[in-house]
DNA sequence: GACTGTGAAAAGTTTCACAGCT
DNA sequence: AGCTGTGAAACTTTTCACAGTC
């Protein structure tokens, strides 16, 4: 790696802290899990990096490299046993565990989330819901009884909740997230269009359809994206 | 730019095709727009890369570099005029235009999307909705009348729709996307948990809360992410 | 004095290409 | 023969650091 002919002294060659897996790699694993699940459902018993790459639109080399961070799951000359690789990846991601999830905010969006059937099949269980509007407290939404915010700490502890989905108005989001962090929550899925600040070690992912749309319009302008000065207004 | 003392020969130093802006840069611009809007609402007249970086949790250098792909928007020694930079970025992203958007699929999710008030303030107008379930056709949802799929091509053309939001079951998503592409749609926001295949030049962004959750559980396992047999310390 | 804009260095990520196992 | 696993190369993205400008 130190191929640079210059530089007389010691070069720190290992860029990555040993044992650390790049975050981009982690972010791709769930997609591998999904494809493997589909292959399993379709009755496929073996696959290979070529086939997986086609499904995901990435190069076979990338898939092999990603997997190599965790071990050697394939058989040379044959490929991967779908069921085995799926089990390994789920294990790595912690998807063999069941995860209890709290939803904070039971407005229109929170309601939709609590009624959405797509989380449970993947091992996520929405087991609690909180709202600061007393009119909502006590209501039954998606099989869960809405509790007041004051009960959050207790319930999070009692029910071993480690993940929260935040669906409150932007103005309240940072406060709610601070409360959740204080309760020991370490992963947050945020639906508000804001950039929440959290301490180190707390993971946040945001669902932000407006940002997604806005990052596409750039490519939609009449005659292609305008380049630095030339091609001005449309 | 200052020292234009170019080298002796022709060196392909620029790895990037000239005039091309990296996609990661584009994906950050909407966030800059959002922060600048907030600063403007808060009455701030000027800002700088330091302040923007704090809000977005990125380095000031990155912000300056990102902006430098498009021009020189700051004043040395002073920073950026909030209003001006905001206008420039909106221009670059095409957010000064109004965009007509179609929603395909008016089930629970499509309903929630059509009733969500968060798109319009940003210049996106949900002006049409389609569903293949005739029981839904003719219903009025979020101020839009649901049309049969068969009318899609006509309506997309008539109403200059260039963006679609797809909220149909996974099994139908690829078919619907193919139809949309055939109608001339070039940007798609997909809510189904699948990896859609589209021709070159068509942009797709997916909203996928399950993938987001699954990419966080890795970091939640009891004693830190396990590394290939051994266990990483925390 | 303060802050931008930007080449150049560093860090990170992807792809290549091939030895080696089945 | 077919495909993995992996060092090394190629490429991309971020960060540094400072000349230049206000």
Automatic annotation (TrEMBL), chains A, B:
<keyword id="KW-0963">Cytoplasm</keyword>
<keyword id="KW-0520">NAD</keyword>
<keyword id="KW-0238">DNA-binding</keyword>
<dbReference type="GO" id="GO:0003677">
    <property type="term" value="F:DNA binding"/>
</dbReference>
<keyword id="KW-0805">Transcription regulation</keyword>
<dbReference type="InterPro" id="IPR058236">
    <property type="entry name" value="Rex_actinobacterial-type"/>
</dbReference>
<dbReference type="InterPro" id="IPR036388">
    <property type="entry name" value="WH-like_DNA-bd_sf"/>
</dbReference>
<dbReference type="Pfam" id="PF02629">
    <property type="entry name" value="CoA_binding"/>
</dbReference>
<dbReference type="InterPro" id="IPR003781">
    <property type="entry name" value="CoA-bd"/>
</dbReference>
<feature type="domain" description="CoA-binding">
    <location>
        <begin position="94"/>
        <end position="195"/>
    </location>
</feature>
<dbReference type="Pfam" id="PF06971">
    <property type="entry name" value="Put_DNA-bind_N"/>
</dbReference>
<dbReference type="GO" id="GO:0051775">
    <property type="term" value="P:response to redox state"/>
</dbReference>
<keyword id="KW-0678">Repressor</keyword>
<protein>
    <submittedName>
        <fullName>Redox-sensing transcriptional repressor Rex</fullName>
    </submittedName>
</protein>
<dbReference type="InterPro" id="IPR009718">
    <property type="entry name" value="Rex_DNA-bd_C_dom"/>
</dbReference>
<dbReference type="InterPro" id="IPR036291">
    <property type="entry name" value="NAD(P)-bd_dom_sf"/>
</dbReference>
<dbReference type="GO" id="GO:0045892">
    <property type="term" value="P:negative regulation of DNA-templated transcription"/>
</dbReference>
<dbReference type="InterPro" id="IPR036390">
    <property type="entry name" value="WH_DNA-bd_sf"/>
</dbReference>
<dbReference type="InterPro" id="IPR022876">
    <property type="entry name" value="Tscrpt_rep_Rex"/>
</dbReference>
<keyword id="KW-0804">Transcription</keyword>
């Amino acid at each position: 790696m130190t191929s640079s002919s210059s530089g007389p002294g010691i070069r720190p060659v290992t860029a990555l802290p040993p044992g650390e897996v790049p975050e981009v790699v982690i972010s791709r694993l769930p997609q591998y899990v999904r494809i493997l699940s589909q292959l399993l459902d379709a009755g496929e018993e073996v696959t290979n990096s070529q086939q997986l790459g086609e499904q995901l639109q990435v190069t076979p080399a990338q898939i092999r490299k990603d997997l190599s961070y965790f071990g050697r799951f394939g058989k040379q000359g044959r490929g991967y046993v779908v069921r085995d690789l799926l089990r390994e990846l789920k294990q790595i991601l912690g998807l063999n565990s069941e995860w209890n999830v709290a939803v904070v905010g039971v407005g229109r969006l929170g309601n939709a989330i609590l009624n959405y059937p797509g989380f449970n099949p993947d091992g996520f269980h929405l087991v609690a819901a909180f709202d600061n509007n007393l009119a909502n407290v006590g209501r039954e939404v998606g099989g869960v009884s809405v509790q007041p915010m004051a009960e959050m700490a207790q319930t999070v502890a009692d029910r071993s909740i480690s993940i929260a989905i935040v669906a409150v108005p932007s103005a309240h989001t940072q406060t709610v997230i601070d409360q959740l962090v204080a309760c020991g929550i370490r992963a947050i899925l945020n639906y508000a269009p804001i950039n929440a600040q959290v301490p180190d070690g707390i993971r946040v992912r945001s669902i932000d359809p407006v940002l997604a749309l806005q990052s596409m319009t750039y490519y939609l302008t009449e005659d292609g994206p305008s380049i630095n000065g030339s091609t001005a207004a449309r």
